[in-house]
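agent> Task received from the user: take the single chain below, predict its 3D structure, and emit structure tokens. No templates, no multimer pairing.
agent> Plan: (1) validate residues, (2) run structure prediction, (3) serialize to tokens, (4) report one or two observations.
agent> Step 1 OK, no nonstandard residues flagged.
tool_call: predict_structure(input=
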Amino acid sequence: MSWQTYVDQQLLATGHVAEAALHGHDGSKWATSPGLNASADEIKKINQGINDPSALAANGVHLGGMRYIFLRPLPEGNGILFKKGTDGGLAIRTTQAIVVGIYKEPIQPGNCTNVVCKLGDYLRGVGY
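)
tool_result: status=success, residues=128
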């Protein structure tokens, strides 16, 4: 299965994720949905922020040139939550990837989080 298939079928097709992307820890783009054009630098800063969220708390989370408010790290320590108005998202770090999911109204944040975390768990389980 291609990386784009994971974005299209495992994230977007659920109806609980409006935009999504898969990137390597170095920021390299593996797959993305239309409209989510995160730069390698933005992904690298998110990856660093998962370890130490202080910079994200001070400066926000930037994706595709948009600034989101950093909400909190995930309890498992492998991701972050962020928000902008009624929209928001999360980024999950797996062994080799960063999985990004964005929700937009009327999608419920918890549903988006569940779908993205499920894919993250799967990728970790298969070594990615």
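agent> Step 4: summary for the user.
The first strand starts at residue 19 and ends at 24.
agent> Done.
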